Amino acid sequence: MLQSYPVILTKDENSSVIAQFPDVPEAMTVGADETNALDWAQDALVVALTGYIDERRDIPPPSKLKKGQELVHLPAQVAMKLAIYQSMRDQGVTQAALGECMGVDGRQVRRILNLDHNTSVSQLVRALKCLGKELVIDIRNAA
Q: Can you give the residue ranges of every domain in the chain?
């Protein structure tokens, strides 16, 4: 599932920290330190992945974490929306077909695919079900 992406943190000549995602090269940001760079990294990742949807591109799966990399976790709703979008692409399901299965109009489907729109979990679960998917939640101890 598209939940967490590895990020590479590199100090630049000004002692700032650059955050870059190997799987999503369009997502890049800079912070005053590692903590600040990681805070900005999630936003940069979401913005870049929004661009993938706008350009109708496949969402790249996250690679395995390598030594020296950190993980950036996507917000739960964003991860669900990306899974819906990618499942639609993989299965050739149109927005109209998803809307018909869900019993909603095209405007509501567009909102489901808008990473900035706050969509109810029940709507997202219904969309996943129409695509033959189910939501599974895993809670872990923080690192």
A: 4-73, 76-130
Considering the segment(s) 76-130 as one domain, its CATH architecture is Orthogonal Bundle (1.10)
Contact 37, 67 (CB under 8 A): no
- CATH architecture for the domain at 4-73: 2-Layer Sandwich (3.30)
User: What is the pLDDT, as a whole number, of residue 1?
Assistant: 59
The two counts, helices (H) then strands (E), for the chain are 5, 4
| DSSP single-letter state for residue 138 | -
H or E element that contains 133: none
Output the CA torsion 51→52→53→54 (10° steps).
50
- Within the chain, which residues score under 50 in pLDDT? none
Q: How far is CA 98 from CA 4, 95, 118, 123, in A?
A: 26, 5, 18, 12
Write a three-state SS string for 57-78. CCCCCCCCCCCCCEEEECCHHH
3-state secondary structure of 12: coil
Angle among Cα 136, 139, 143 to the nearest 5 degrees reads 140
| Amino acid identity for residue 54 in this structure | D
Look up the pTM and report it.
0.92
